[in-house]
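Predict the assembly for these four chains.
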Amino acid sequence: MSIDRKALILQAATKSFVQFGYKATTMDQVSKIANVGKGTIYTFFKTKEELFEEILDKASQELTSVMNRLASEDHTFTQKLLNLLDSILEFRSDHELFVKLAQEVRDIGTVQALEGVKRMEEYALDFLRQQIERAIQREEVKPCDPSVVAFMILRLYLALTTEWNKGHEPLDKNRIKEHMILFISKGILV
Amino acid sequence: MSIDRKALILQAATKSFVQFGYKATTMDQVSKIANVGKGTIYTFFKTKEELFEEILDKASQELTSVMNRLASEDHTFTQKLLNLLDSILEFRSDHELFVKLAQEVRDIGTVQALEGVKRMEEYALDFLRQQIERAIQREEVKPCDPSVVAFMILRLYLALTTEWNKGHEPLDKNRIKEHMILFISKGILV
DNA sequence: GACTGACCAAAATAAAAATTTAGTCAAAAT
DNA sequence: ATTTTGACTAAATTTTTATTTTGGTCAGTC
């Protein structure tokens, strides 16, 4: 059996998307990195977009599997959130793709990058909303609009992991975690 | 004594900057709105940038005066924050200039608009940081990094007042206030 | 039959032409 | 005499055109 060319291509494309973003990744480049003729890519993927989609699918699946594992564990809402933050901050590869795409949207507004960002955001928001709803039912969390609160948590996370870095030294993982918990689980008041 | 042409110009320019942003505001347009020859503008302001600066100065002063009045009142940290949110959400004109400039930065990246946004952000962050530091000393707020927490509060405010609107119906003032307080002063846990 | 890379149309970028605008200043108005 | 003005200019921006790059194909190689 010959080498798995599809895996090679996915690997190369992921690397390039994370490093250069959607637009600056060319099919020629991917074929070079994967050591494969350009035509070969098109035996596995109809278009560049489809290749991109498949990589996004994989990222979403990974995220979903992490989330489902965490959600099923019998922990408090706070502990689940902490574990989720840990997984995301620890295994940054999906996070990095997300950040790169978000940057591309800001800088040149690539429509495919925007779709990718939206999709990953939706996944995260959906998971958070679901968890918040359940926590409200269990009377672990105060009655509130779960959509709005999920949105706030995500924005807070993005503010600390990416926006803060535009004007300051990046915060380390533990400071990020501590500050998220400070706001979400206890409030900043004594 | 003839009419106050400088005030007329400032008024016209403010209106145009709020409505169209920095770049799409032309000096011809300002002179037309102010019913003044274009040359007259240049007897009061050396350049378009200087005119813009003076308007930013005015906005900063207003903000500062509101903030100082609130800060001096003998209220809890939470109450001060609520009052600040009220003033900003109620008297939106400065807020609207800020939002328009932020949009211009996103859309076309005008450097002067970016400077304006940065400046207003710095004012707000500085005030928040100061208040948080004092509240920590009074043991009203838990020990934490005041810069980071000020940043988080501002991002949360911007997330609810502007980013939320990109994908949803705008939240009304009271929902915004409630959600801010939910996170800041008590946390979302029961 | 899997794989390739020269090839093509379409999209993106760069260059050139055309338009718009910030800022000036001689003349008009006060 | 002092203030105000709007036609004017150089510089910046936008639009148009020329050039290059890139996604996708397919005749031919392995």
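Chain B has two domains: 1-45, 48-186. Residues 2, 26-28, 38-39, 41-42, 46-48 of chain B lie near DNA strand C (CB under 10 Å from a C1').
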